[in-house]
Amino acid sequence: MVSGNLFQTFLDRLEEARLYREQGLDDGIRELLTELLDDLENSLLSEDEKGELRSRIQEELEKLGERKKHEAEGAQFRNPLVAHGDPPVDPRRSFEYAMALTDGQFWEEAIGEFEHAAAGGYRVMQCWELCGDCAGRLGKWDDAIRYYEIVYADPDVDEELKKQILIKITRCSQTRKEIVAVSSIRTREGNNREKTAWSKEKTTSGEARAASSIGDSMDHCSLSQLVGSCIESWENGRGEYLAGRRQSYTVLNLLHVGISSLVLELENEGDGRRCAGQVLTAPFARGLSPEALFTWGKAIIMTNSQHLARVFDLLRTEDHYCVVREYYALSLADLLAGNELMPVPLAIHFAHQILEGLGDLHLHMGRDEKIRNIYHLDLRPSRVLLHGTRPHLRLNNGGLWREIEKHNPVGTHIRHLPLAFLSYRAPEQFRTYLARKRPPVFTDIYQFGTLFYEMLTGCRAFNASSFEEFEIQHCEQYPTPPKVWRPEIPEELNVVIMRCLECDPLRRWRSATQISLELEKTYSTCIGRVQDRIYSGYIERLQAQ
Q1: Architecture of domain 76-175
Q2: How far apart are alpha carbons 325 and 383 in whole angstroms?
Q3: Among residues of the chain, what percentage have pLDDT more than 70?
Q4: DSSP 8-class letter at 308
Q5: How far apart are CA 237 and CA 218, in angstroms?
Q6: By CB neighbour count within 10 A (0-12 exposed, 13-18 middle, 19+ buried), where does 499 fall?
Q7: Under 8 Å between Cβ of 414 and 422
């Protein structure tokens, strides 16, 4: 068992290196792979396991060598002087002049001078880094990243500088995403003002229907007995609160009764903010300590993403613990429960956002500048939260399933799960040997495929009446291609989904980012354009049923 865990640790580290390479940072992880080889030789793994890992690490090193060769061949295109045959200049004077230009905030001109200095061999890495800084000042994030990657890819750069450059690359990437998101929000503001009255009426009627159905199973009195009417932040053994300080919340309503949790409507008594509180129910809460929830919540808080549900606090109720998160009016489950097919452009728009959220989970530098690898492993329609008036979504409970499984492996074994869960489980979750010791990123990709399939077709890719049937469908059969159910689905999407749903993890897409880029390449108009009108029309048709 110890050997198995150790082998998985090496695989996780190798997968992290591969993900860096896919993002263009491949030469920068040469030292990481070398260190991995050293650790492997000193490990307690068997010779067969060591041999397999050595082979995989060597493959990565060979790929890095090939990339370096290509970069060297294309260096003349990165060097303006070589490409255009400019006359030689004094590189030191160019550098000093560039520094003076930065003092005057002439960023574009400074970049040109830094490039001259680098071409002349003067403080080359510093010049490229300063080029990236100047490009960032101009808001040219893609250019900044390219300059930084030149520094990061150099094998002679020390580890401390590489760490600083990686931080800059990550910040540029995240800032670019934030700017795109803010721009979209501003574009929507004018349209949303006209929709405000309609939105309030829509949300209120939806909540009324939900409250009516919930009332059959739980009244307000029993809710008060379960969690109380006012609950406070939980304090850990070190005197810390997840929100940073003790806060109190008033329980306003019961929003949702699910298979694995209750969702409460809460109001922060300090600032009046409306939020949602999720209380896990048995068997999913059994054995899960508040310390584990606290650690998980802290990791999510540190994760800076536009498409992950924000966690605010952890509360102690009568006999339960409640995770406080941002309030979203709908979930993907609400949309899929209707009899209205989702417009294809809207489905692509949502799929891209789900992939962005998964990509941030799988490899992300948080606000604390720590790099994290988190896997969802429980991606279902109810885990995708949707805004009530605009087509924006956030993934909920990212990484929580692993904590739940760890603390109650028997109660959460796949054979004991409700059948509703099994439509969205991956083959390797039914038969663990199918994972072939691969990282869980492939499991999330499979689960994404089941969601995208259902968004486009209106039906589940896998549907059965018993565990055994589900196991056979996922592990031994292929689902009906989505285009069969809906002929207008583009063939490219058909291919994307079916590759996600491959039984063998190695035949699936390699990462969420890879699928995201594929969608951007083919369907940029669906992703780039604001889908407010399509979304509001779709919601209206659902409510009219």
Answers
A1: Alpha Horseshoe (1.25)
A2: 13
A3: 81
A4: B
A5: 34
A6: middle
A7: yes
Distance CA 445, CA 456 (A): 17
CATH, domain 215-326, list 2.60.40.1120, 3.50.50.60, 3.30.200.20, 2.60.40.2550:
3.30.200.20
Q: Among 144-153, 190-199, 235-244, 459-468, which is the least confidently predicted range?
A: 190-199
420 CB burial (10 A radius; 0-12, 13-18, 19+): middle
Residues 6+ apart with CB under 8 A from 81: 115, 116, 119, 120
Residue 477 in tokens: 């059969």
The model's pTM: 0.64
- pLDDT in the model for residue 179: 64
Q: Do 215-326 and 330-543 share a fold?
A: no
Contact between 451 and 332 (Cβ < 8 Å) = yes
Helix H or strand E encompassing 330: strand 330-331
DSSP codes of every residue in 461-511: S---SSHHHHHHHHHH--PPPHHHH-TTS-HHHHHHHHHHT-SSGGGS-S-
Q: What is the mean pLDDT of the chain?
A: 82
| DSSP-assigned beta bridge partners for residue 387 | none
pLDDT over 80 (residue 266): yes
Residue 464, CA distances (Å) to 277, 467, 468, 469 in order: 32, 8, 9, 6
Q: Are 217 and 257 in contact (CB under 8 A)?
A: yes
- Return the CA Rg of the chain: 26
Domain range summary for the chain, segments of one domain joined by +: 2-17+34-72, 76-175, 215-326, 330-543
Sign for the pseudo-dihedral over CA of 54, 55, 60, 64: positive
What's the CA gap between 219 and 235, in Å, rounded? 30
User: Phi/psi at 441 (nearest 5 deg)?
Assistant: -55, -35
Are 474 and 425 in contact, with CB atoms under 8 Å apart?
yes
In 174-317, which ranges are E strands?
230-233, 248-257, 261-268, 274-280, 311-316
| Amino acid making up residue 488 | E
Q: What is the CATH number of domain 330-543?
A: 1.10.510.10
